[in-house]
Amino acid sequence: MKIRGLSPKLPLTIDHADGHSLTKTHKEMVKQNLKMLILTIPGERIMDPKFGVGLKTFLFEQNDSATQGAISSKIKEQLGIYMPYIEIVDLDFQNTESNSEISDNLLHIKLEYWVQPLEALDVIDLTYDSNRGLIT
Question: Hey, which CATH number is domain 7-134, 3.90.460.10, 1.10.1740.10, 3.20.20.190, 3.10.450.40?
Fold first, then answer.
């Protein structure tokens, strides 16, 4: 039996079996949707100008506890509105003070979350470089 996809996998790529790559599990789809929520800049999504955390908008701010608190608050606010079935287990920021291998140009976030309907724990690990964009 052929497994049908739930949504297009982003970025769009060609898949010879399905035509383009698709998310095959709910856990994979939730992770992709969470990543899009964090990366989308408010106003960027058509018909929903309040959608998104806009991680990119924080790139030229100081990577300190005040900025990290603002990002954390924005993530929690957006999850409450758009993905209330996700519970944050741990939200960790890394900067040059906590990890000497992190450049001043990098914003690194590790978000551990619980998907209530799936009873699944997962982690999203994002590193954003002011020069190159999203790295992971």
Answer: 3.10.450.40
